[in-house]
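Sat 14:20. Reprocessing the chain from the morning session after the first attempt stalled halfway. Input below, unchanged.
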Amino acid sequence: GNIDPTFDGCKLAEAAGASFVGRENVTAPKKLEKLLVQALEHKGFSYVEALSNCHINLGRKNKMVSAMENLDWIDSITIPKKKYDALPEEEKINFLPTGILKQDKEANEYCEMYKEIQKVHQGLRPKITQDDFVKKI
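Finished this time. Tokens:
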């Protein structure tokens, strides 16, 4: 068995500052492809969780003999974010939302902010203040 508690990778990425976070499962390949394209086109750090079956380990652990059983289970625990948001809080624990979970097009991009700090040290711009940050990081 595994004694470590589970965690939500999407929530972890969001807390770490990702400005684009999404999740989709492999039973919806067109949606997954669209989500991946959106993540790649997004300016800033993007995180996409692609839920896929592992019928060898996860399937055996949960007594799912075939890959299809495993995929059906993944499909049964995922719902679009809009439907997830409409659920009562006590029901949300049974599901994982899919689609774009966070997209902040106005967030400061890390590399651009780093370049601004370099300019300060090179004497090419005044000192950076809190006003330089459109949003809190």
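The chain has two domains: 9-105, 108-137.
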